[in-house]
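User: Some background: our group keeps a shared notebook of sequences we're curious about, and every so often someone picks one and asks for a predicted structure to add to the entry. Today it's my turn. The entry only has the sequence so far, pasted here. Could you supply the structure so I can complete it?
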Amino acid sequence: MCVSGTCAAPGYPRSADARTRLHHARPRLTVHTTLHDTLYEARRALLQLQPSPAS
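Assistant: Of course. Here's the predicted structure to add to the notebook entry:
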């Protein structure tokens, strides 16, 4: 489970607790299960913020 680049090992015994707390704090937050997925989505979001190159 990863949020903002912080990950817990797949067998982390309290991952359900972490997901529940995150859901209450930030209901629209997507929690990814791997660092790869977290970084992919972060990069995608950052690329959407960049202005397009001037023609």
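Suggested note for the entry: The mean pLDDT is 78. The chain has one domain: 2-49.
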